[in-house]
Write a structure and sequence with these properties.
With 52 residues, the chain is mainly alpha-helical. The chain contains 2 helices and no strands. Helix 1 crosses helix 2.
Length: 52
């Protein structure tokens, strides 16, 4: 598995912040900037989903 780019890691941190604050949000990056890997990283790091 690859590593996230810096802006993807920033987006992941923002998603985690929103989730921890009980808020929702929209991941709206430009086309080709890696919304799918960022979303998959978020899902993989969400223990309540038991995806592993």
């Amino acid at each position: 598995m690859g590593e996230l780019r810096s802006y993807q890691a920033d987006a992941l941190a923002w998603i985690n912040f929103l989730d921890n604050a009980g808020l929702g949000g929209c991941l709206a990056l430009d086309m080709g900037l890696g919304k799918t890997p960022t979303t998959l990283a978020n899902l993989a790091n969400t223990p309540a989903l038991n995806l592993a």
